[in-house]
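Lab notebook, bench 4. We co-purified these components, and the gel suggests they stay together. Before we commit to crystallization screens, I want a quick structural picture of the whole thing.
Request: model the full complex, all chains together.
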Amino acid sequence: MPARSEFAAGFADPVRDSQTVFRAVMDAMAHPGRIVGVAPELTPPTPLTATSGAIVLCLCDSDTRLWIDDNSPPAVSEWLGFQTGAPLTGNPAEAAFALVLDGEASPSLGQFCLGTQEYPDRSTTLVMQVQSLTGGAPLRLTGPGIDGSTTIAPVGLPRDFLTHWAENRARFPRGVDVILCAPDSVVGLPRSVSLSPERV
Amino acid sequence: MNTPSIAAYNFAYLDEQTKRMIRRAILKAIAIPGYQTPFASREMPMPYGWGTGGVQVTASIIGPDDVLKVIDQGADDTTNAVSIRKFFAKVANVAVTTRTGEATIVQTRHRIPEEPLSEGQILVYQVPIPEPLRFLEPRETETRTMHALEEYGLMHVKLYEDIARHGHIATTYDYPVKVEGRYVMDPSPTPKFDNPKMHMSKALQLFGAGREKRIYAVPPYSRVVSLDFDDHPFEPQTFDKPCAMCGAESVYLDEVILDDRGGRMFVCSDTDHCETRRAKGHRGELAGEIPEAAQ
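Here is the predicted assembly.
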């Protein structure tokens, strides 16, 4: 029988690997702006990276509706479907998790599920692939989890991201949370942080 | 291959789907500081009220490299703390410690260690009643709306009635705090003495309420302000005497009855803090002389 790509390697040690990935993601969300290394041994189909693939594997299952980029290759959804069993949705407004393979082509944050004032936790968490977490235009972060302020400089954010983030922040406690994923590391952007362009 | 024994549990007891569910709740809780995130609390092999919420949180975050400390009212050596520490040593095979500084995860029932926590440490609270408004408004539908509308007047009325009746705010534990200027949160029944330690703490603070099925969080470097009034500012407890064993001042003390004629002593509630100080040679009035052999 020919090898099917969706069966290709998931976590080698699912219990330990998910715990390692989760602690990295939790560290990133608790310290927004901190670049946290996540480089699991995982071979998902391109353009899904091992880092963002591992985060989806660590957090998604049959209880979480997953939205994936419209233009993602079928191999990605087949692989994630096989590995996690998460039901796919074409409607970003009903997704618990959204996998954005190309950050620059992401729908605006307001199109995802924002939760309600009573249940702000029922909102989408975006796993957003970007080219790099360094080398871009510097952004200043302030908010809970940050001692004073910190700076990130990701490359490959959606256009008008700062405007959309400001809208997202203004909706607090509603709003989406974003995990920016470079090929070997992540940065957490919980809805509680404020972003502004760093004056150089 | 060894034949598995009957009790072959998954690492850290919980199954992986449960851990994923709890992990998702923890991430949401961190993103919305002070908001009580609902989660599908599981039956644990201990009764509700014994820390099932904290145990589920710890089980979902702990890894083989962690070092776990468990305290009950500040003490490492009481039944609840010993049982939970043994539980994780058995089901997760993790290293355990009583030293605050050595632990990566500290699970606590109703105290925050005296030694300031450092960056990277995680404090997991066992919470009985997570809703700070519950004794003022029993309906969940109503308290949920009050949090949604940021309508916390009732809590201020409660504190005001304290002042009207007693001349000061008489709440001494479970003292309500406001997190990052938004959610009023129950710090769990820690003495109000510990409230200032939550403010801008370097450690991540996670709260698990098993029976009530809620998880909430305070990220590091977050503002945690105890509610008060301009003319009746928040004041933590103070003690007239230092610890009778180690002589520590500015720590939380437990009263210990010594006899039936009114004799009593006050000792550190944080046993690790007290032992560390005594090992360094600090002596309180009832500690006795240092044995010559130890000198």
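The CA atoms of residues 110 and 190 of chain B lie 4 Å apart. Worth comparing against the SEC data before the next meeting. Chain B touches chain A at residues 10-11, 16-17, 19-21, 23-33, 35, 37-38, 60-64, 144-145, 147-149, 180, 182-183, 204, 218-223 (CB under 8 Å).
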